Amino acid sequence: MGSDGGKFSTDIAPDLIAAAVDSVERNRTEDPSEPAEPLEFDPSAPSPEDELASLRVQLEASQATGRELMQKLREEHERTLRALADLDNVRKRAQREREEVVRFGVERLLKDVLPVIDNLDRALELGVKTGQWDGLGDGVRMTRKLLEDTLAKHGLKAFTAVGQPFDPHLHEAMGHEEREDVAPNTVTSEVLRGFLLHDRLVRPALVMVSRPKPEVVADPPPAPGEERNEEQG
User: Fold this and answer.
1) Which residues pair with 201 in a beta bridge?
2) Alpha carbon distance 78, 90 (integer Å)
3) For labeling, which of 58, 75, 154, 217 is most exposed (least CB within 10 Å)?
4) How far apart, in whole angstroms, are the C-alpha atoms of residue 120 and residue 114?
5) Helix (H) or strand (E) run with residue 40 in it
6) pLDDT by residue (tens digit) across 103-150?
């Protein structure tokens, strides 16, 4: 750019001027109101109606599957409730049977013991009627034998402890006896007999247990000095 007497001049390259003119010409020929090219139609794409129908089919299938699962859960729940009810009934029945065993389990034993009571009643009645009590001892011994046999039939048996070594699992010591004719810690007599129910201890035998007599220790002889003191005294 330069100045000559107050006048300005501009130097612009010819190629820039040509590019500007070409851009103006293109803008004049283009119509901005002209519609854009239409999109190409794809015949294989599903229509919105088809997509909606497909979604409905999927929804109905999901609902049917849900109803089937709920029905299975309901049936399984009912089966579980029935099983729990049956289990509770079995438990209650077992409880009743257990209570009946506790209450009436000795019924057979009592029936077997009744003849023993009958024999005692007859012996007492005979003694009252005749006044002869001498034979009552024989009747009592026979009745006692019958009772012991009856209890043995049900597994209750007495065991002998006299002469046996003292066993704290079977015997209960009531006292000691100083004996020289038996070994120490030996059962010398029974206060009450012991009983076993099969292999279980029902009552230990109450016994007396031997022990040796204490040794008598003689007084030691006095020392020589002690003897002189005693003589002087």
Assistant:
1) 196
2) 18
3) 217
4) 10
5) none
6) 777 777 878 888 888 888 787 787 777 777 777 777 788 888 888 888
Going through 115-214 in order, the beta strands assigned E by DSSP cover 156-159, 171-178, 187-192, 194-197, 200-203, 205-211
What percent of the residues of the chain are helix, what percent strand, and what percent coil, each to the nearest 5? 55, 20, 30
Domain ranges of the chain: 50-105, 106-154, 156-214
- pLDDT reported for residue 106: 74
61 pLDDT more than 60: yes
- How far out from the chain centre does Cα 11 lie? 110
Kind of pairing between the strands at 194-197 and 156-159:
antiparallel
3-state secondary structure of 182: coil
Length, in residues, of the chain = 233
Domain 156-214 is classified in which CATH homologous superfamily?
Head domain of nucleotide exchange factor GrpE (2.30.22.10)
Distance, in Å, from the CA atom of 230 to the CA atom of 224, rounded to the nearest integer, reads 10
- Give the pLDDT of residue 8: 43
The answer to whether 225 and 233 are in contact (CB under 8 A) is no
